[in-house]
Amino acid sequence: MKLIHTRIHEFLHCMCKVMKNKDITQMQDDILLRSAIFRAVEQGKVEFIAHMGKANRNIYQITNEQDMTVFQSAADCRHEEKIYSLAYLYGFFDRIEIFRRRDKFDNNMLHIVGTFSSFAQTRVDNIRGAALQLQRERQWFKEVESRTVEPDSLEEINHTDQAPPRTVFTKYHKELMKERGRKVNERNCNFLYGCRCSCCHYDVCCSIHSSRWK
């Protein structure tokens, strides 16, 4: 295991050395490099991305097939405490651009978090119950919302949904909300049924007890 870890570090060092002097265009055109970077983002490999970023900060400006940057992709994949936090290595005005930047579908950072992509679904599938899944999604949305450095981003309309981020969140989490509501109703019905059964049992016991004393 230690040998594998050493080899990975050696490989990472070689990659960093190769890409150190590449400009954005060269990195964007390097399909293998770009694929490796975004695969690492999807898997939450923060150490890999951090090392690459130290070697060449241009990696944070290259984009994937959806025209998402590393930060946008990290937000989409729900790697909140990992790669996404690397955005705070940038200055205030750079962070404004990071949050306001639009992807292929005209989504800013909050719109992306408001959608419920296949990556997001995979992440919440590890959480039991629709209520907790929805709670986790809301927490993530509010976390990104609280870090948004420009309030106007909260009200920006995208072309795809013609809606601001909060409306986008509601739209794409509608099924999860319905599922949560259905589970709540089921629990309430089960509770009422249990209460009725208990009451009926109590009434029967009282009737039997009364008949014995007649």
From TrEMBL:
Domain of life: Eukaryota
GO cellular component terms, A-Z: membrane
PANTHER family membership: ANKYRIN REPEAT PROTEIN, CASKIN
Protein name: Uncharacterized protein
Species name: Rosa chinensis (China rose)
